[in-house]
Write a structure and sequence with these properties.
Protein Transport Mog1p, Chain A, 2 domains, seven-stranded antiparallel sheet, 20 strands
Length: about 350
């Protein structure tokens, strides 16, 4: 269990963004509308974190971010420091149990004393833990973006009056947990001072909107064309994703994505993005000198990109790896990424390289 008096993170993309897709992903330099705040229902004074009497009081937050296809899922428990701390082991076991059904929605095994309540417009579900007062875990989702993990963790830290962290030290402030879904969840255990006031931002960072129905598979838009390797099938495109495919090997699935962002120093900076990917597959960050020896050039159509292979080993059968390429073209930086179980990533290496070489940007 974490020490009660400070924020700790145990420790990939989290799997995520490349481009980063999955979770990919902390390079966001885009702007989207700001979501309205959620007015929480009135609470009995002194009975829970939604009460005005909790303003400025110490609170603990247990939260997890889990990639699930086109969406990332968020599980968050906030409340008095010690009662929430007592639920840490249960919370971790709960996160490990999460998997996804055929409809793309999560399912799980609830610990004793936990019950599921219906969701609403802003939540998929509410999980209630029998306690005095009762504790609640919100379950929500939003479309995965390049900065899903870092942006949301910093949003949560802000809710507890804690300073933000950077992509470089995110691994020191979170734990990666292998889940039944086959993906790694990013889990935090924070202690800080609540801002109170009865208002909380929604379960979204950078103005993200409530979760929407999963995007449907479709052909790549005209902005990018490519040759599809044998065995790869269309994935879900939309938003920043200009192309998406997936490949199955037995029960294992890897996702291939192509996204673009406005070209600027932050978006195109290699070290920060590679270290972000490394965090998604439970690898420690590297230095600029180490990156030089790990990155090699790879043709991307008529261009030349920077290619890295990030082979994860943590998590046993659930270990994740990323094959990623970053390439600049005109006013955009493109991110091409394969993320999935390590055996699939290794067996699809040649196909991925041929796919990257075939890419043409319109």
């Amino acid at each position: 269990m974490f020490p009660h008096g400070r924020s700790v993170v145990f420790t990939a993309l989290i799997a995520a963004g490349l481009a980063g897709c999955q979770p990919e992903e902390q390079i966001a330099q885009y702007t989207i509308p700001k979501a309205e705040s959620i007015q929480l229902p009135a609470a009995t004074p002194g009975k829970g974190p939604g009460s005005e009497s909790t303003a400025g009081r110490p609170e603990r937050m247990l939260a997890a971010i889990l990639p699930g296809g086109e969406q990332s899922w968020f599980f968050k428990l906030t409340g008095p420091v010690d009662p929430v701390a007592e639920r840490w082991d249960e919370f971790r076991e709960f996160v490990k149990s999460v998997h996804f059904g055929a409809d793309g929605n999560p399912d799980w095994t609830l610990p004793a004393g936990w019950t599921k309540q219906p969701g609403n417009q802003m939540r998929f579900a509410t999980l209630v833990i029998a306690a005095d007062p009762p504790l609640e875990i919100s379950v929500s989702a939003l479309a995965t973006s390049e900065d899903t993990v870092l942006a949301n963790i910093n949003r949560w830290r802000g809710q507890l009056s804690l300073p933000p962290v950077t992509a470089d030290n995110l691994g020191d402030e979170s734990e990666m947990i292998a889940t039944k879904s086959g993906a790694l969840a990013t889990v935090i255990n924070l202690v800080g001072t609540s801002k109170g006031g009865g208002m909380m931002s929604g379960p979204f960072a950078r103005g993200g909107m409530p979760s929407s129905p999963p995007l449907q598979p479709s052909a790549a838009p005209p902005s990018v064309t490519y040759d599809t390797p044998e065995g790869w099938t269309p994935g879900k495109v939309g938003g920043m994703r200009k192309a998406a495919l997936e490949v199955m090997e037995g029960d294992y699935r890897a996702e291939i994505t192509v996204i673009d962002l406005p070209r600027d120093p932050q978006a195109s900076e290699r070290l920060a993005n590679v270290n972000r990917w490394r965090g998604q597959v439970a690898l420690s960050p590297v230095t600029a000198d180490e990156l030089k020896s790990a990155m090699r050039p790879l043709p991307v159509g008529s261009l030349t990109g920077d290619y890295v292979e990030l082979i994860g080993t943590e998590g046993g059968d659930a270990a994740q790896s990323i094959l990623g390429v970053i390439v600049d073209r005109d006013d955009k930086t493109w991110f091409v990424k394969l993320q999935g179980p390590t055996p699939v990533a290794l067996s699809q290496r040649a196909n991925f390289e041929q796919f990257v070489k075939s890419l043409k940007f319109e």
